[in-house]
Each structure stands twice: as C-alpha cells, then as structure tokens.
Amino acid sequence: MAVAADATAPVATMRKKVSRPMVVAAILLAWLVLFAVLRGRQTLTLAAADLTGLHRRLNDLNDSIGANRNSNPLFLYFFNEIRLAIDNLVTFVQSLISQPTGTRPVPQIGWLGVVGLTGYVSWAVGNWRVALLAVAGFTFFGLQGLWQESMDTLALTLSAVLVALLIGIPLGVWAGLSDRFNRIMTPFLDFMQTMPTFVYLAPLTLIFLIGGASAVITTVIYAAPPAIRITAHAIRSVPETTVEAADSLGTTRSQQLLKVLLPMSKRTVVMGVNQTIMAALAMVTIAALIDAPGLGKTVVQALQSLDVGTAFNAGLAIVVMAIVLDRVTTAAAARTEARRTGGPFLKWRRPLLVAGGIAAAVLVYLSHTYVWAAEFPGNGSTGSHIASAADTTTTWLQDHLSGLTNGVRDVITNGLLNPFQTLLTDSPWWLVGITLVALGAVLGGWRAAATAAVCVGLLVGTGLWSDSMTTLASTAVATVLVMLSGVVFGVWMGRSQLVDRIVRPSLDAAQVMPPFVYLVPFLALFGATRFTAIVAAVVYAAPVAIKIIADGVRNVSESTVEAATSAGCNTWQIITKVQLPMARSALTLATNQGLIYVLSMVVVGGLVGAGALGYDVVAGFSQGQLYGKGLAAGLAIVLLGVMFDRITQAAARRTRA
User: Fold this and answer.
1) Is residue 591 a contact partner of residue 479, using CB atoms and an 8 Å limit?
2) Crossing angle for the helix pair 612-622 and 465-495, nearest 10 degrees?
3) CB 62 within 8 A of CB 202
4) Residue 98 neighbours by CB distance under 10 Å
5) Can you say whether the dihedral through the CA atoms of 491, 230, 634, 448 is positive or negative?
6) What contacts 580, CB < 8 A, 6 or more positions away?
7) How far is C-alpha 502 from the geometric centre of its chain's CA atoms?
8) Residue 303 and residue 384 in contact, taking contact as beta carbons nearer than 8 Å
9) Would you give the DSSP letter of residue 100?
C-alpha cells in the first residue's frame, strides 16, 4: 500500500504543476504551429458585394413580408396594431414638444414652456441646483441651433421610457415576489443585455419597418431589462423582519406590496428608472440608422460625411441631454431618501411647489399662444461657432499631431491588430473553431465549451466567418487595452481613497454618454480607420473595467496587506503578489464586462471605417440587396457576444470557486 501511495504521489504533483495558464499557452502554441503549416486554406472569405444562399433567403423573406404585411393575419391584427399604437404615442409626444401638428406651424408647447416645465419638474423631483442645470441645458440646445432635433430625441426617449416602465416595473415586482418567475426571466434578461445595441435594429425593421415607431420598440426592448432587474432587486432587498411584521398584523399580499414593499424600495426603483432612461437615450441615438429623427440622425449623417464639426456639435447636445436626465433622476432618488428623514425647509416646500407650478403653467400658456414663446429665438450661432471651432481644432490636430497620432495608430495596428487579424482570418476556420472550443473548456468548463462549439457552427452558417474574425480581432485587441488601463487605474484607485474620490465621478460621467459620442473626437484625431473604432471602444469600455478592478483591489483584506508589508514586501510585490491575485474574480468580471462593451462599440465603429460586421449591418440598412447580409451580420454579432459572455462568466465563477 505504501508503494502504491508513493507511485501516485508524482502523478498528483504533476497535475498540480499543470496550471490553467500553462494549458492555455499550450493551446495557443499549437494554434501558431498549425497556422504556419495551413495558412490560407479553408478561410471562408466572402467579398463585400457577394451573398450566400442564406443572405438571399433572408432577402426573399424581407420581400415576402413587405408584400404580405397588410394581408397576413399575424401582421394585420398583431404587429401592425403594436406599431400603430406606438406610432400614435410617438406622434402625440412629438406634437406636444417637437413637431408642428395640423394647421399649427409650431408644437403645442413651445421652447419657453418646455424649459419652464423642465425646470419645474426637475425642482419638484430633485432640488433647485438640478433645476438650474436642466434649464441651462435645455436652453443650450436652442443656442446650438438644435432645438427641434433635441426635442425629437427627447420625445422618442420619453415614449420609450414610458412603455419600458409600464412593462418593466410590473415584471420586476413579479420577479421580486416569485423565485420561479425570477429564474425564468434571468436568462432572457442576460441575453438582452449581452447583445450589442446594433443587433436589435435589423430584425425589428423586418417586422415594424423603419421610422420612429420601430426606434421606440427597439429602445423598449433594450431599456426594459434594467427596470426589471433593479425593481426585482429592490423588492428582494426589503428586510425579512419587516415583511414578517406586516404578516403578523394580518396584511394581505396586495397590502404588503402597496404599503410595505414598494414604499421601502422606492429609492432603488427610482435608480432603475435612471438606468432605463440612460439606456433609452443611448438606443434612441443609435436608432437613427433606421431613420429615427433627432440628434442621432445628425450625428450619423455627419459621421458618414466625415463632418467632424457638425458631429461634435450634435454629440455635445447628446452629452448635455444625458447629463441633465441623469442628474435629474439621480436627484429624484436622493429626494425619496430626504423625504424619509425630513428637513428644516420641508414645511415650505409645498407652497413653493404650488407657486412654481403656476409659473410653469403660465409659461406653457405663453408658448402655446404666442410665436415668440414657441420658436427659439436666434439662428443657432452658438452651434455654428462650436462646429467651426471643432473643425479648426481638427485641422490643427491633424497638422501638428499627425506624427504622434499616426505613430500610435501604426504601432498598435501593425504590432497587435494586423498580426492577430491575420492569424484569425488566414487560419482554417475549423482550426480557429477548435481553438475557441478548447479555450472555452479550459477557462469556463464543458458548458462554456459546448456554447463555443454551437456559436462557431452558427458563425460558419451565417456565411460571414471572415468578417466575424476581423471583428473578433478588433474586439480582442481593444479588450487587452481596456484591461491594461483597467489594471493601472483600478489598482491606483483601489489603493488610494483620494484618487478614487477624484477619478470615480469622471468614470461615472463617461458611462452616461451614448456610444455615438465617443466616435467624434477620435475621428478628428485618427481619421476614418479601424483604429478609430478601437480607441473609441477602449475609452467607452474602460470606466466599467476600472471601477470593477478598483473595488476588487479595495476588498482585499487590510490584514493580508499589512502581513505582506511586515514580511518586507515592497509596493510592487504587494500589488503583483497579493492584491491582484486575490482580486482575480474582479479581474475576470472586468474582462467579461469589457468584452461586451468593446464588442458593442467596435460594431458601432462600422460608421467610421471599422468595416467587418459593423459595416455589414450598416450596409444592410442602406442597400436593399444587402439586407439579408446585414441581418446575418447581426446574428453573427449576437453569437460572438454570447460566446464571450458565457466563457468569461464561467471563468469568473470558477475563479471564485
């Protein structure tokens, strides 16, 4: 028995020595060796104008649906009715604040009334500071010469948020009360939040056509998950003792919900409203690709013509609207807490609100009755100056910093992107597929490997394998850069409370901005190239990765750090040998979130030269004969997102275990 035990000891030792990173390195080395032998074979390339049988069938499906839209019962009595109801809602809101109706040359409520109402509502739900910010922000839209575009964006956002909350809050309450329903909803919500924003557009235009109604329906699907998740979390977070106390008093289930659960979770639910509004604004701007009116349309047209000044002016308006909506809803959440604790001025608030309401009503009446109060005065000269300054700055940057920017672009493009893209696109498709499945098995387990295998097979079926690999290359390079910045700044913030207090507000503000906005400054710096999309993706995804890593580093036990310090470790050793290894689960989660954010942004970068799947989607909207290919590209993006998400989430779970 002793001999047998001695014989098995070396085997156990060898198993311990073969770590996961070593297996990953072996897989990658085998891939490189086989690539050198098989390069250029079975790569499944497809020219930009070529279509596969699947693409043609999707084109035929689009044509068939268009021909039978008004005769097929499913469309006639279901989809068309939904579209009509949403279209009526959008038209109604637009007629109130943005678009002329009937014989009126102006909306029902002109600029003065909108500004007055905005200020009053912001003060009523928040405070006077956020009301001043809202009034200043909305006035700025008019000074930019973008009043109607801004109001169109606001109208679509409000319509989508209203529908999303009408659906999301009841479902969230249900999920909070029922474990079974929560388990059913979670996979759907995960899937909806994993998909990049681009992906929602193509299939929904197939059903609901292009225009404002489709934009709102798309936005509802994208913006509802935060409302459902956060409402469910709020309901579940109510202390059990409170619920038990209500039970002991003989309350019914509906009384518990209305008198206990909802009032005690109000602040968290308002935070969910905030997230829903931010998601809706981001999606409404991207929905300009399906002919949604507003600021997004101005940005898209400017990006397509490389007009940086116009894009910057409209992008600035989107940023201002995002900041205003975010601050108002954040202040509303804080106000719900203030109402619980009371305050010295609480007794004066009600009469002041009545007076403010009367003033807002007078402004609405004036803007409804008089043209001078309905049409924003001036010709938007501020916006012209902003656009001109942006163009001048762009020219100066290109003249004086082109050496630096081109150098950075060339180093990353030639040193990282091109070699990795060549490895992916010139390897046989089956070799890349086997490698992805093997990495999924090592990092995430057999379920992640099975998911990767299914996704690889479906990617081949889309007929866009080469474009998918090009997008994968850009996504991987951008994710590496995101994690490098995430580790540097995350460790810095995690080790210093002062740095965290200074940097975190900027990261929070960066996460508020819609994806389109990030493209504009980098278009000015780097021109319309793949690198522009990669840099924009890094800046877009870095804040979430930095915050996750910072929290992970901060959560490392202080006693562990003190023990390492007393053992003579220097700062570098403490970071690399203690804090980062103990924050591995945070690093894996940051990688997961970074990948999803990067994929979303890299695809949007199809507007500024990123090519690949993003270009296929955009081309599908603009060229009817490529619609099927664009739809297949959307499916390919979903498959990449699902594969990344499942592997990294499984890796995160294994790390925590």
Assistant:
1) yes
2) 120
3) no
4) 23
5) positive
6) 487, 491, 553, 587
7) 24
8) no
9) -
Phi-psi domain of 624 (left: phi exceeds 0; alpha: psi -120 through 50; beta: other): alpha
Token pair of 287 as six digits = 């929905």
The set of residues, in sequence order, having a beta carbon less than 8 Å from that of 222 and lying 6+ positions away, is: 192, 197, 200, 279, 280, 282, 283
Q: Residue 200 to residues 60, 163, 251, 355: CA-CA distances in angstroms? A: 20, 17, 43, 45
Sign of the Cα torsion 142, 148, 153, 156 reads: positive
Q: What pLDDT is recorded for position 15?
A: 47
- The answer to whether 81 touches 88, Cβ cutoff 8 Å, is no
pTM value is 0.81
Give dist(CA 456, CA 643) in Å, integer: 9
Q: What residue type is 140 in one-letter code?
A: F
HEC assignment per residue over 581-610: HHCHHHHHHHHHHHHHHHHHHHHHHHHHCC
Residue 12's pLDDT is what? 46
Classify the C-alpha dihedral 543-547-550-556 as positive or negative.
Answer: negative
511 in Cβ contact with 545 (< 8 Å): no
CA distance 648 to 656: 12
Angstrom distance (rounded) from CA 287 to CA 519 = 16
Please provide the size of the chain in residues: 657
Structure tokens at 457: 């097979």
Residue partners of 528: CB distance under 8 A and separation at least 6: 306, 608, 609
Residue type, 508: D
Which of 505, 535, 542 is CA-nearest to residue 520? 535
Q: For tokens 């079974």, name the residue.
A: 180
φ and ψ at residue 367, rounded to 5 degrees: -70, -25
Parts of the chain with a pLDDT under 50: 1-5, 7-16, 341
pLDDT at residue 49, as a whole number: 80
* CA–CA separation, 303 and 487 (whole Å): 32
> For 654, how many CA atoms within 13 A lie in the half-sphere containing its CB?
16
Question: What is residue 441's predicted lDDT score, i.e. its pLDDT?
Answer: 92
Eight-state DSSP code of residue 290: G
**Residue 579: DSSP 8-state:** I
What token pair was written down for 137?
A: 């922000």
Assess contact for 34 and 431: CB atoms under 8 A. Answer: yes
Closest CA to 330 of 322, 320, 319: 322
Cβ proximity of 14 and 425 under 8 Å: no
Give the per-residue pLDDT at 337. 56
Please name the residue that has the structure tokens 């965290």: 500
> Per the structure block, which two tokens stand in for 369?
């009755």
Residue 137 CA to residue 148 CA, distance in Å, equals: 14
Surface-to-core class of residue 61, CB atoms within 10 Å of its CB (0-12 exposed, 13-18 middle, 19+ buried): middle
The pLDDT of residue 423 is: 93
User: CB burial class (10 A; 0-12, 13-18, 19+) of residue 291?
Assistant: middle
With contact defined as beta carbons under 8 Å apart, do 482 and 567 qualify?
no
With 0-12 / 13-18 / 19 or more C-beta atoms within 10 angstroms meaning exposed / middle / buried, residue 158 is buried
Region of 252 please: left (phi>0), alpha (psi -120 to 50) or beta.
Answer: beta
